[in-house]
Amino acid sequence: MRILFTAQAAFSHVHPLVLPLARSAREAGHDVLVATSPELAPDLDLPAGDVLVLPRSQPLGQVMRRLSAEAADRPRTPDAGPAANGTSPELFARGFVSTIAPTTAEDLLAACGDRPPDLVVREASEFGGHLAAEVLGVPHRVLDIGPMSHASDPVVLAALDVQRARFGLPPLEPGRIWGSGRIGVVPEAFYPPSLRPAGAGYFQVPSPRRPTPLPRTVADLPGDRPLVLAGLGSNAAMVPGIDRILDAIIVALGRLPVSAVVALGADQDPWAWTGARAPNVVLESFVPQQELLSTCDLFITHAGFNGVREAIAAGVPMVALPLFADQPATAARVEEIGLGRVLDPAVVDPETLAVTVARTLRNPAVRCTARAMQRQTLALPPLVDALTAP
């Protein structure tokens, strides 16, 4: 089977889930093609023949920052980023559907029109693949990289119908946004009942094929106290006021009887860090999060879905500091089902964070809930099975 994978031009939309599924498909004997931007293509670690470069694809962050600056719903806390505001359905529709999807679809059709794929797998926020698949008349499935996003919001579906009309397609039938199936990568219990469409499947993401060794500074931490990992994602450096939030995290963890690792961000040299430090807190620019989480007792996270998914798979409780996009909604769901607590990064201080971390570490109910969700994850079939599931 020839499978086309499509995703937004952003590391967090391609690498954590789309690439593992594409690689698994290739190992299972399928022909794969991953569509991406000129900027991301060199970093995919795939054979050149498996990569389709879309010439007009723009970096997602660049597009959304421009649209956010033009929008009336700007962050109300410019010193701390969007904080708990999230992205409105209107802004989501304007960026992902009205701005990005048409050119993506046109580029896909130009590249694949003479030899259509047998299946299109798009990540949930990428709608150009939806349009191209519908025009080509091939089945498409949705890899759900953001269960709490606005991907199926009525405002978004209305915007998609406008684009469908441009491509000569009829209005979307009710429930058809997921094509021939939604591919979930966390247990069904994570989804609110209203977001559990008929025919959805739930699958287990494979472990990294080449695990990254831990830094010695992390591996040699003492084993006589809980281990806390804090990381605010690959886009944290772009959030105004992020240094204040990182300072609050470091100071809070420095006051607790824990060992801690704080990932400052890939572009932040820990040796050049001028903010807070603590003797029990190791600062790193990057850590192999999935590998390290399996050894942790608590995760302080921005509630990006991939980090939440990895914490669920590792059975680790969370304290969430959501920054933007669907993170506030994801964090709220984490708290609602008992996997952790949520704090507002716009106003968080070391005292409040230290108390919340200490209480969460001492709470057996949160730990048991996290372990139960981990067991549900381990019972899911492998992700590659989603490609041939009925």
From TrEMBL:
> Which residue intervals are annotated with compositional bias (Basic and acidic residues) in the record?
68-77
Q: A GO molecular-function term, please? A: hexosyltransferase activity
Which InterPro entries does this one have?
EryCIII-like_C, EryCIII-like_N, UDP-glycosyltransferase, UDP_glucos_trans, UDP_glycos_trans_CS
Residue ranges of every copy of the Erythromycin biosynthesis protein CIII-like N-terminal domain listed in the record: 26-147
Erythromycin biosynthesis protein CIII-like C-terminal domain: residues covered = 252-381
What Pfam families is this protein classified in?
Answer: EryCIII-like_C (PF06722), EryCIII-like_N (PF21036)
Which keywords does this Swiss-Prot/TrEMBL entry list?
A: Glycosyltransferase, Transferase
SUPFAM superfamilies per the record?
UDP-Glycosyltransferase/glycogen phosphorylase (SSF53756)
Region annotation (Disordered) maps to 68-88
The protein's name in its UniProt record = Glycosyltransferase
Taxonomic source organism: Streptantibioticus silvisoli
